[in-house]
Amino acid sequence: MEQLDEWTTTTVINPLHEAITDGDGIECDVVTCETVKKAIREKVLESYRNGQAAGPAKPRTGYRPRRQFSKQN
Question: Please, what is the Cα angle at 27 between 12 and 25, to 5 degrees?
């Protein structure tokens, strides 16, 4: 999570902050917004590919479902 926080700060927050403080208004310029969107898409795609490379989830071993008891009157 620490790496994610660092990446978010350097790739998303800092460029947007610079665009806001350096610009005339609150809207960020199109280039900055597109750059940030592209970085986010690349990070999501990287995460997806890492999940695909890991393969399917393995079934739990030693798992026994709870027995269902009916109410006795």
Answer: 125
